[in-house]
Amino acid sequence: MKKTTSLAIIATWLLSAGVGLTATLGLDTKPAPVVTVSGTFTSVPGAFSFFNGAGGVSTDPAAGSGLIASLSGIIGTDRTADTFALNIGPGISPVPFLSGLSSDFGYVFSDTGPDTLEFLIGSVGGTEAGSFGNSLLATLEGEFGTADTFFAFGTGFQPVSATLTVAPVASVAPIPLPATGGVLFAATLSFVALRRRRQKIAS
After folding, report:
1. Helix orientation angle between 2-16 and 177-202, rounded to the nearest 10 degrees
2. 121 and 202: one domain?
3. 55 and 134 assigned to the same domain
4. Residue 37, SS3?
5. Does the N-terminal peptide bond of residue 61 adopt cis geometry, omega within 30 degrees of 0?
6. Same domain for 96 and 138?
7. What domain range is 2 assigned to?
8. Same domain membership, residue 61 and residue 146
9. Within 10 A of 88 (CB to CB), how many other CB atoms are there?
10. Strands, DSSP E only, in the chain?
């Protein structure tokens, strides 16, 4: 019984060590075009969450520079998000460079690096919509604290540095190999422990 418990603890530790909390959308993106904008992100769960940035750059075949960007909506304490509105524009022009509305939300809180919030964007519009396609992945990357703290208190009314990246979605990605490998290893440990226990009872 002690061996079974020890193996279960080891398997759980291997799966959780250094991972943080992940609920990623698992989407692949195309290499181009890509918009990158630096700015600040402020979030109060259940009230408002918004990113504002300037000086953004877009790569070919939708080259652009000096882009301003906003991404705004509400992230809830239940770790879901209402519809976020994306708007990227060239300066003060009333015609957006790129725009859209989110339909799904994911996140990766890392123990060893920047955290990421993911938004699947549809209803794509703007002058460069044809270059980007009908589905975009908008990612916000920054140091947002732990998942428990973020979804409870957000950024505490304080803006934090963040980078927004927007790219066309290529396809749905398979489960990453490290994750599947960890699950398989944990299952193998459990099977071995159960087999040893049965052999012990039989003898």
Report:
1. 180
2. no
3. yes
4. strand
5. yes
6. yes
7. 1-20+175-203
8. yes
9. 26
10. 21-23, 27-29, 35-44, 48-58, 64-73, 85-90, 98-109, 115-125, 136-142, 160-172
Q: Which residue has the tokens 């396809």?
A: 171
Q: Which of 11-15, 39-43, 56-60, 188-192 has the lowest mean pLDDT?
A: 11-15
| 35, 165 contact by CB (below 8 A) | yes
Closest listed residue to residue 106, CA positions, set 115, 97, 98, 117: 117
pLDDT digits (tens, 9 = 90+) for 55-93: 999 999 999 999 999 999 999 999 999 999 999 998 766
The token duo for 66 is 């000096």
pLDDT of residue 90: 86
Amino acid letter, residue 143: E
Among 195, 202, 197, 193, which residue's Cα sits nearest to residue 9?
A: 193
Query: In the block, which residue shows the tokens 């969450």?
Result: 49
Question: What is the Cα–Cα distance from 200 to 114, expressed in whole angstroms?
Answer: 47
Say yes or no: 9 and 90 in one domain.
no
Task: Count the alpha carbons within 13 Å of 91 in the hemisphere toward its beta carbon.
Answer: 3
**Distance, CA of 32 to CA of 97 (rounded, Å):** 15
Q: Are residues 95 and 194 in the same domain?
A: no
